[in-house]
Design a protein that fits this description.
Shape: globular
Strand order of the largest sheet: 3-4-5-6-7
Number of helices: 7
Number of strands: 7
Largest sheet: 5 strands, mixed
Structural class: alpha/beta
Number of domains: 2
Distance between the termini: 43 Å
Order of helices and strands: HHEEHHEEHHEEHE
Bound molecules: iron/sulfur cluster
Length: about 160
């Protein structure tokens, strides 16, 4: 399948899966996430973001149209919306550094949010590898010990979760 077709399919699936939820008052990803078309890096507030939301909504870049955080996919509770919890979760594209090629990435919406949301992060890390991207640039990988074996080569600091 060609890249364009794949993008269209992913968009269609995403639209169907996220139909039950809208972003509401949240605009976290407009600062926390990267937007290639705008040359906007992670953690930089988008130039088009205003108190009323996206100022170029109908003409926003394709990557803004295509991307949804994990909360939109109905995986998390209402209270775990990124602007309320301070944690924005996304599914990483297949990554050969991880044993099963998959991982979640969590980004801190504000400094200290990961410490406040330890139970949410521990819950996700019971079954999945989660790369925590702190707002100060640190990265810590957590997850079930069996899934972290292949992560030895990563420069990140690692933390094994106690599995009970
Ligand atoms: S972080 Fe998620 S819920 Fe918030 S605006 Fe972005 S897609 Fe919507
Ligand atoms: S263009 Fe709009 S949707 Fe995209 S990051 Fe900026 S404010 Fe958000």
């Amino acid at each position: 399948m060609r890249a364009g077709q794949l993008r269209k399919l992913r968009r269609k699936e995403a639209t169907a899966a996220t139909a039950a939820r809208s972003c509401g008052a949240c605009t976290a990803c407009c600062t926390v996430h990267k937007v290639v078309e705008l040359n906007k890096d992670y953690g930089v507030r988008c130039q088009h973001l205003s108190d009323a939301g996206c100022g170029v909504y109908t003409k926003r870049p394709q990557s803004c149209k295509d991307w949804y955080c994990l909360w939109r996919w109905n995986v998390l509770s209402e209270a775990e919306r990124p602007d309320l919890s301070g944690v924005m979760l996304d599914r990483m594209p297949a990554d050969p550094l991880f044993p099963d090629g998959k991982a979640l990435v969590a980004r801190e919406v504000w400094s200290g949010a990961f410490d406040q949301q330890q139970s949410l992060l521990d819950r996700m890390a019971l079954t999945e590898t989660v790369v925590l991207c702190y707002s100060d640039g640190r990265k810590v990988t957590i997850g079930p010990p069996a899934k972290l074996i292949g992560v030895q080569t990563r420069a990140n600091v690692r933390r094994h979760l106690p599995v009970s």
